[in-house]
Design a protein that fits this description.
This protein is of the alpha+beta class. The protein is built from 15 helices and 16 strands. It has a domain of 96 residues. InterPro entries: AlkZ-like.
Length: 373
């Protein structure tokens, strides 16, 4: 068994995420193998791509028809390669009642209120959405229409909307299964039927589901089944029994038993030096790993990186999550504040400031006001 320390694992991840070099084409980025989570109001997906690309003009992902935006992993919006998305959809279908309940975060009382097992609820909602969403519709319009088409037990009173409508997470999980994606850049969230429309999956696809876990381990490894399950939104038992790849090797990371695809072992054994500085957006793929203590060992720093609301961007410097950044727009100026979590060298600070100017340019702003807090 290969034994490595945390620093070697971090160096591997920097390389696996394509942060150690600059690519030219966003479609070639390894992180798109799994998908890049988006928060359109904060340009998170575009900024994650920017951190991995060279200084070549690129259209926003929303304007590039090679990508599709959809509720996928954990019901969160992710950009995927359009060519890959259809094969991903069968991997999103829950395996059984326990798996569906985990993905929905349902307790026994929720199942009782639904009047049916959780996996049946997902399939029922997906079938109804497939019938309802035949054209582009806002989330609100689609929710209203599908609420009328599903059993009463699958709806909930929503205090925020002051209305009864389909359980939000149920709608998110069912939408891709119904052959429906999201319209990039649209406010409010807007649903778009895929053309041609794929059929509703009859059962989970073992190959597709295993590929998701394998890709997670390749990008975020070495990792455990529990961590992979956290990303998928399922349980360790489901991942271990139905989605765990065969072509893995065991690795010890500071004494913790983990796994990684066998063909990733050469890079793990001798990763490139992670001597780069990048400004990563909130929800960047690198910080989506479920072993947060490996990414950020200091508990106080973890509370700053992963907040309940309003996560900051992070400064990646020499293989460490070494700082935070926040920005706001003031007219045509971007005002950006950087905060050290770990001491940064003069070289790293200068590189971070250069990355800040790339953010300014990507957002089409004319000036930058930068402050170190």
């Amino acid at each position: 068994m290969l034994r490595i320390d945390r620093q070697q694992a971090m160096a591997y991840r920097v390389a696996a995420h394509g942060l150690h070099r600059r690519d030219r084409d966003p479609a070639a980025l390894a992180v798109l193998d799994l998908g890049v989570q988006d928060d359109a109001r904060r340009d998170t997906a575009d900024l994650a791509v920017l951190a991995r690309l060279g200084d070549h003009p690129q259209p926003p992902l929303a304007d590039d028809d090679r990508f599709v935006l959809a509720w996928s992993h954990r019901g969160a919006p992710h950009y995927h390669r359009a060519a890959d998305f259809r094969s991903l959809v069968p991997a999103l279908l829950p395996w059984d009642e326990a798996d569906a309940a985990a993905r929905l975060s349902w307790q026994r009382r929720d199942v009782a209120a639904a009047g049916m097992p959780a996996d049946e609820a997902v399939r029922t909602a997906a079938a109804a959405l497939r019938k309802v969403v035949r054209r582009t519709m806002t989330k609100g319009a689609a929710s209203e229409a599908v609420t009328k088409a599903i059993p009463e037990g699958l709806s909930r009173w929503c205090r925020g909307c002051q209305a009864t409508h389909i359980h939000d997470q149920l709608m998110r999980l069912a939408t891709p299964l119904a052959g429906v994606a999201l319209e990039p850049g649209a406010f409010p969230a807007t649903l778009v039927p895929l053309r041609p429309r794929p059929g509703l999956p009859a059962r989970p696809d073992t190959h597709a589901a295993t590929a998701v876990v394998s890709t997670y381990l390749r990008l975020h490894g070495p990792a455990t089944a529990t961590e992979a399950a956290g990303f998928v939104g399922s349980t360790k038992t489901t991942v271990s029994k139905t989605m765990w790849p065969d072509d893995l090797v065991e690795v010890s990371v500071d004494g913790r038993r983990c796994a990684i695809p066998a063909d990733a072992l050469p890079v793990l054994e001798n990763p490139p030096e992670p001597d780069v500085v990048r400004l990563l957006p909130p929800r960047d793929p690198l910080v989506q790993a479920r072993d947060r203590a490996l990414l950020v060992p200091d508990p106080a720093h973890r509370k700053e990186v992963w907040r309940i609301l309003g996560n900051p961007g992070t400064i990646l410097a020499d293989g460490e999550i070494a700082g935070l950044w926040r920005s706001r727009k003031s007219g045509s100026r971007m005002e950006l504040t950087l905060t050290e979590l770990l001491p940064l060298s003069a070289r790293a600070r200068a590189a971070a400031e250069a990355e800040a100017d790339r953010l300014r340019e990507a957002r089409g702003l004319t000036s930058l006001r930068l402050t170190w807090a």
